[in-house]
Amino acid sequence: MTTPFISVSQISKTYNQQRVLEDMNFTINEGEIVGLLGPNGSGKTTMVRLLNGVILPDQGTIRVGGYNPFEEREGTAVRQMSGILTEGAGMYHDLSGLENLRFFAKLYNVKDSERRIAHLLEQFDLTKHQDKAVGTYSTGMKKRVGLAKALLDKPKMLFLDEPTNGLDPEGIQLVMHYIKKVNQDEGTTILLCSHVLHQIESVCHRYLFLQNGRVVEQGTLQEIESKYMRDTELQVETGLLVNSDTYRGYPVRRIGANRLLFTLPDKTAISELLRAILQESWVHSAEIVNRDLEALYFQVRKEQSAS
Fold first, then answer.
1. Under 8 Å CB-to-CB from 135, ≥6 apart: which residues?
2. Do 214 and 182 fall into the same domain?
3. How far apart are the C-alpha atoms of 236 and 258, rounded to whole Å?
4. Less packed terminus of the chain by CB within 10 Å, N or C?
């Protein structure tokens, strides 16, 4: 049995008599990208700070790469193997991108730093901007140079706390592309904290759902889908005319001039439904609309709140 790279057991944390985390339990395997999901105030940032040994828990144990982040010597080892990107990139705005990376490479005692910096500038498409002051960078460029900084010492673990905040759609797409590329090229284990779910669905292998300071569900998208989604909602762009609220026994409602929304018992009914429609009319598109990460997240929260 493989030993998890990160193991969190019965972690609780209180601030000013307010319980922020309670009985947190989860594991992350080496090389995984795991999404830590939850609303603002659910404890995501606190969990990242605990994993790095920046703060201490009230109770419980954590191991990162076999080390205890709460012991001084082992905590230093954890921080040395970790890269962190928070909402602020933590760069010096009066210095250029290159000067910032050289400064932090010296601070981190990075070996062969010039080659590593050149590689990261190229990887994040910043070479042509390396001599410009970071204060003149766009928000997306600041995020990218922040990622480069976090990766200077080839960390085994990368903690990303809301890495796409403030970005436009193109910037979000670029940052997600780089996160996936870093994981694939360097095998970096990544914990990605976010409350904007559609942005991270394409990069994460698994998800941890936080609610009221607890992990209330975890697993792959497919595992969570099979557990929580009873019906399949299929949106079909078609010329089919329907005169009732059912079609071939399936509930249906019109949501646009040529769009119908069918409620099916499961995905296996899709082929039969589409064949029936095609016998009567045309079909331009068909899309499952209730099984993306965001829909699953709200279904988990709904059922956990009711339990």
1. 93, 94
2. yes
3. 8
4. N
pLDDT in tens, the chain (307 residues): 568 999 999 999 998 888 999 999 999 999 999 999 888 888 888 999 999 999 999 999 999 999 999 998 899 999 889 988 876 667 899 999 999 999 999 988 898 999 999 999 998 889 999 999 999 998 888 888 998 998 999 899 999 988 888 778 888 888 888 889 889 988 999 999 887 788 888 899 999 999 888 898 999 998 998 888 888 999 999 999 998 999 999 999 999 889 999 999 988 999 999 999 999 999 999 999 888 888 888 888 888 777 6
Q: DSSP secondary-structure letter at 2?
A: P
Residues 286 and 169 in one domain: no
Q: Between vectors from CA 24 to CA 21 and to CA 30, what angle results, nearest 5°?
A: 125
Which residues of 169-265 form beta strands (DSSP E)?
A: 189-194, 206-211, 214-219, 232-238, 246-247, 250-256, 259-264
CB 236, CB 262: distance < 8 Å? yes
Q: Indicate whether 135 and 253 sit together in one domain.
A: no
Longest dimension (CA), the chain: 72
Q: Which of 267, 255, 221, 260 is nearest to 240 (CA)?
A: 260
Give the tokens for residue 114: 């010039």
Residues belonging to the chain:
307
Residues 33 and 168 reside in one and the same domain: yes
Q: Does 221 reside within a domain?
A: yes
Q: Which residue has the tokens 């954890």?
A: 78
End-to-end Cα distance, the chain: 33
Please state, in angstroms and rounded to a whole number, the distance separating the CA atoms of residues 75 and 55. Answer: 11
**202 in the same domain as 188:** yes
Residue with structure tokens 């589409």?
A: 274
Note if the pTM is more than 0.90.
Answer: no
Structure tokens at 128: 């042509």
